[in-house]
UniProtKB/TrEMBL annotation:
Species of provenance: Saccharothrix tamanrassetensis
Superkingdom of source: Bacteria
Protein name as it appears in the record: Tetratricopeptide (TPR) repeat protein
Transmembrane regions listed in the UniProt entry: none
Domain CHAT, first and last residues per copy: 616-842
Length: 858
């Protein structure tokens, strides 16, 4: 009975259900106490105490666990069977090694694990009967030692990978599915710390699938490690969501180390998200817990996050206090003593940066000289901070050239990291780490005056920092069947939620399930192969050569100043447009007015009031953004590269752009890529009608008359799979369907089809993307704009996936004006007009009710 209880306790502890395990162990101990000198009774009691020790250490303190293990080990002297005694000594010592590693005493822990693994390797080699029990102990030991090796900074990842690869192989050979998944998870952790985030995320995905089937309790620990990987690539909001999901349950189960680590990473995510209050609170909570647990290394890492918060506040002051510098240097020394060399270097760079701001440049130089050369696998945010500090030090000495060289080198490092990533969200998220370097470079160039030379320099820097996601040529990829299955689940839940709302039923549970399913699908997408082949950042000469008699205007904001760089007539010029905040506010108000004006039926008096407000905001934006450029752009067609809130502006509403062909692109590099000639331009026309649009029946029939080779998918035929298949390789696709932009999860922006939603997540990976796409739906030109002006949404996913032109609305639009605008657009297109010209004429009929924009190539 005691053995059976112990087996259940081990299963519970393996799944991180420590409180359950402790209850089972106490019942087992009651059956075998006192041991009475019988070997079998003493053996079972030792196994129970050994597992109890681990559980107590995880839910209480390390000392509780170590004391329990010492008691268990001492009692083994009474065993009469020497082989059994050696086996149990090894078991207890291996477990002790794990606990020491968990709290950062890596060298001590590995020494204990070495003894345990060597013992079980000998036993496995000499085994004559069924060796499964020995093999399972060996797999566990190898997994634990592999993870411990991963935390050593005095060696590469080789020893850790070797241990974990052997653990995965042995577990697979003997059919230990859960142990194989645990080792795979650990291998993901090693690869993450080695800087190979894409492969780490793929390992996490493999482990996640196994845990979901075999032991869902292990998903909590996996979420913590996934969050660490996401923080490393700038997805702070996604990491925060992951951790907010698991922290309540971890606290309920009192899993001390995991709670503290989750709080530590939650602090790191909040710091990246500029939520300094939450970052400090979580870092302090984690530090207290880790100190109580006897985990000085982890506590010091939590202290580093708290220090980073205080350093950021100090950098905002006129002269940072000396006390923050002293704290940073003391923490650097403590981290060095703990052999956490990357973290120690980070603390020292923080101290150097504070000293630069304080005017103590000689001390800052000495501090930077003492920092070892960055390792190739050093975290990207550490490398970016070092570059930023060197740039600021160069500026303090008046050397702008060196400062810009540091910014350029840092952004190039970041680009090389981005090149290895898969999934649109990951590729776009990395821009967060280069934000300060990019802002520094733009500020320096703007400070240099408004000359033509400086205008060209500013254009170059904006192209280095803007919308890097869109400079990739996507690789052809296969669809992960598990990801496809999860997206189908999202679609079904989305449909069920819509029906529940229409029927007036409760929706809270469906909303929660849908959010969970969306996040799971997104996480599966993160482990995809690299997104694409990077194209070089374009030059102003290349853009001028392609522009011909058009003009390109790229907007940027720096220190609340809006600036435009204009490329036209063979020249590059810079214009300062004034304060950015009023322009941003006018763009948001115009967007709100157009949304309010969208419904097909509303009282005429109300419509007149809203329209008058929208016209005022449009004129205000026009005066701020385009009228100062009038002499440069003349009557040319326009290519506009927005920034921030300007992505919501339907440019055809602004007086300067009424009836002027205008194209919106995320960057000049993206525009140049989308406007190149296609080797395979696609063929045929696809017209799709979704459900619930009163004007769509007549609209689609009318459009079919403009195209001799049109294929029509009516409501009953417009199913997700059929539409995706029909989109593949088509020259022009028009989809008349209700759409919705999802600001919190841009890749789940959607079009509603008869069997559910078609998501942006699905359209970005088509084998042969459609050449031109028209989205006759609300708001699908909108994007979630990440740091680095990285816009991402439904239309953005199409452009990133290789579609050259997307026509879409940047605000809500009524069914009737949408149908009328699309009829005019297609008539113009059929008559030979380019998309930009065709749309400009169609929008000019009623700009406020037809807020469509031409994205990509015109």
């Amino acid at each position: 009975m005691a053995r059976a209880l112990h087996k259940k306790a081990v299963e519970a502890a393996t799944a991180d259900r420590y409180l359950v395990a402790i209850g089972l162990i106490r019942k087992g101990l009651a059956l075998v106490d006192p041991p009475g000198g019988v070997d079998e009774r003493l053996e079972v009691r030792t196994r129970l105490l050994n597992t109890l020790a681990f559980c107590l250490a995880e839910t209480g303190s390390l000392e509780d666990g170590l004391a329990q293990m010492a008691a268990a080990r001492e009692a083994l002297a009474d065993l009469t069977d020497p082989a059994l005694r050696d086996e149990l000594y090894s078991l207890v010592d291996g477990n002790r090694g794990v606990l020491l590693c968990r709290v950062g005493r890596i060298d001590e822990g590995i020494a204990q694990l070495d003894t345990d693994i060597a013992f079980n390797e000998r036993r496995l080699a000499e085994a004559t009967g069924d060796p499964s029990a020995i093999a399972e102990l060996l797999v566990t030991g190898l997994s634990n030692r592999g993870m411990a090796h991963a935390y050593r900074t005095d060696q590469g990842p080789g020893p850790a990978i070797a241990d974990l690869d052997r653990a995965v192989e042995l577990a697979g050979r003997y059919g230990f599915q859960i142990r194989e998944a645990i080792a795979t998870h650990a291998l993901g952790n090693v690869l993450q710390r080695a800087g190979d985030i894409p492969t780490a995320l793929r390992r996490y995905t493999e482990a996640q699938r196994a845990f979901q089937d075999l032991e869902p309790g292990l998903l909590m620990r996996l979420r913590i490690d996934q969050s660490e990987a996401l923080i490393s690539v700038g997805l702070a909001d996604e990491a925060g969501t992951l951790l907010d999901d698991v922290l309540p349950e971890l606290r309920r189960q009192r899993i001390g180390q995991d709670v503290a680590e989750a709080e530590l990473f939650r602090a790191a995510a909040a710091l990246l998200d500029s939520d300094l209050v939450l970052a400090k609170r979580m870092a302090n909570a984690a530090q207290r817990k880790l100190a109580r647990r006897g985990s000085p290394a982890w506590a010091a890492v939590a202290g580093l996050i708290a220090l980073r918060v205080d350093a950021l506040k100090a950098l905002d002051s006129h002269r940072p206090p000396a006390g923050v510098v002293d704290r940073a240097l003391a923490l650097a020394a403590e981290l060095t003593e703990l052999k956490l060399y990357d973290q120690a270097a980070f603390a020292q760079v923080l101290a150097a940066r504070l000293e630069v701001r304080r005017g103590n440049t000689e001390h800052a130089e000495r501090l930077l000289r003492d920092i070892p050369k960055s390792r190739r696998i050093a975290p990207i945010d550490h490398r970016m901070l070092l570059r930023l500090c060197r740039a600021e030090l160069a500026l303090a000495h008046g050397n702008q050239r060196v400062a810009l060289a540091q910014a350029k080198a840092g952004l190039a490092e970041l680009g090389r990291m981005r090149d290895r990533l898969g999934g649109l969200e990951l590729v776009s998220g990395t821009a967060l780490h280069g934000r300060e370097l990019g802002e520094l470079a733009v500020r320096l160039v703007l400070a240099g005056g408004d000359s033509a030379t400086n205008a060209r320099r500013l254009f170059t820097w904006l192209e280095r920092t803007k919308a890097q996601l869109y400079r990739y040529e996507p690789f052809e990829s296969t669809v992960d069947p598990v990801l496809a299955e999860r997206i189908t689940e999202v679609r079904q839940l989305s449909r069920a939620l819509l029906r529940a709302r229409l029927d007036g039923l409760p929706t809270a549970k469906l909303v929660a399930r849908l959010a969970t399913s969306q996040r799971d699908a997104m996480r599966l997408g993160w482990s995809a192969s690299p997104w694409g082949k990077p194209r070089p950042v374009t030059t102003h000469d290349e853009v001028l050569a392609r522009l011909g008699d058009r003009a390109l205007v790229t907007f940027a904001s720096s220190d609340n100043e809006m600036v435009a760089v204009v490329l036209a007539g063979g020249r590059v010029r810079m214009v300062r447009l004034g304060a950015a905040d009023p322009i941003t506010e006018a763009a948001r108000r115009l967007h709100a007015d157009l949304n309010a004006l969208a419904p097909d039926y509303q009282p005429p008096a109300l419509a007149q009031v809203i329209a008058a407000s929208a016209r005022r905001e449009a004129e205000r934006l026009d005066q701020a953004l385009l009228q100062p450029l009038a002499a440069m752009i003349d009557d040319r067609e326009l290519v506009v590269v927005p920034t921030g809130a300007l992505y919501v502006v339907p440019w055809g509403v602004l007086p300067t752009c009424v009836n002027r062909p205008t194209v919106v692109a995320p960057s000049a590099t993206a525009w140049l890529s989308s406007s190149r000639e296609d080797a395979e331009p696609g063929s045929g026309v696809l017209l799709v009608r979704g459900p619930g649009l009163q004007a769509a029946q007549g609209e689609i029939d009318r459009l079919a008359g403009y195209h001799v080779d049109a294929k029509l998918l009516g409501v009953s035929d417009a199913r997700v799979t059929a539409v995706l298949e029909a989109l593949d390789g088509v020259a022009l696709a028009h989809i008349a369907a209700h759409g919705e932009h999802e600001p919190e999860n841009a890749l789940f922006s959607k079009l509603e089809l008869v069997d559910g939603a078609l998501f942006a997540h699905e359209v970005g990976r088509m084998r042969r993307p459609p050449h031109r796409v028209v989205l006759a739906a609300c708001e699908l030109a909108l994007n979630r704009v990440r740091p680095g002006d990285e816009p991402l949404g439904f239309a953005g996913a199409l452009l990133a996936g290789g579609t050259r032109t997307v026509i879409a609305a940047s605000s809500k639009v009524g069914d009737q004006p949408s149908a009328a605008a699309m009829a005019d657009f297609h008539r113009n297109l059929a008559a030979g007009a380019t998309p930009a010209v065709a749309l400009a004429d169609a929008v000019a009929v009623d700009p406020l009710r037809r807020p469509f924009v031409c994205l990509g190539s015109g």
